[in-house]
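SCO family protein: structure tokens wanted.
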Amino acid sequence: MTDRKILMIGTAAAIGILAGGALYLTMRPGGDPFAQCSSSAVAGGMGAFGTDFTLTRDDGQRVTDAQVFDKPTLLYFGYTFCPDVCPLDAARNADAEALLVEDGKDVQTVFITVDPRRDTPEILADYTALFSDRMIGLTGTDEEIAAVNRGWRNYYKAHDEEDQEYYLVDHMTNTYLVMPGGQTVEFFSRETPSEQIAETVACYVDASA
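Answer:
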């Protein structure tokens, strides 16, 4: 046998071992069933995002994270007085949700306010209804909202030093995919189109089945 044939056989064997090892790592107990779906890389991994919480839903009911995240959820942090970014992002997320529901996927969207002073449950209910019947609005005390934002590493700051009524709030604009049980597995920037979000979420939903 020539050196070239030996090299080719060895290379093929190595590729087979690597492929088999990757499959084993994915399918073995404790492996990552979502490895083929992930497109985001963050320091510390997506497992570092999220926290337990109790907040007030837009119907006035107090709910826990376990009650909220009972199905795959697109989670966004914003506020109803936001003049431009939040409505566009909420509409984009609702579009992604509609595509997934049309494809038979049981998913929802959640909008957590970063402006609890103005965003009462009633205001959130009216706001979320503009985008989707499946969108849930959540608010709480200043301390509760601060804690949940820390859990998802979401920066926000109200510019209300001079005007306590008509002020803007700086905030991050990522959308997170949270699976049932509260596991955050993916995030999307505001540049991600609804079709791409729907495709990625569908991958996670199928992988979890």
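DSSP finds six helices and nine strands in the chain. Strands lie at 54-57, 62-64, 73-78, 108-113, 135-139, 156-158, 169-171, 175-179, 183-188.

Cheers.
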